[in-house]
Amino acid sequence: MNREEIMRIIPHRPPMLLVDEAEKKDENSCRGSYTVKGDEWFLQGHFPGKPTVPGVVLCEMMGQACAVILADKVQGSIPYFTGIKNAKFKHPVLPGDTLEIECAMTKNRGAFYFAEGKSSVNGKVCVQAEFSF
User: What pTM did the predictor assign?
Assistant: First the structure.
């Protein structure tokens, strides 16, 4: 899916649309990517002279990728974050980097869905976390 196709299934719009492309690998997993251009709003003050993608934004990118998996499961609803656990930030993500996102649903309980994700740049894991929606 390109950005236009992604916008048909999630409510995010620029500047909060933080996935450039995504694809479902199967019923419970997906991959996505985002290339950091350098002029994004979240880099303007984080940090002057050394722009670095904030960890909360990295989690949002993974959450948006997860929404691609959830689109068929929660039709007519918006999958809001209900939790982020065990987030680990291992390497900074900088302008020019392409973040490769891998997410998988791990279980669901009623209306709640649980997932895990990790994101890498050039094969090096930058962030990983567990999510609930």
Answer: 0.95
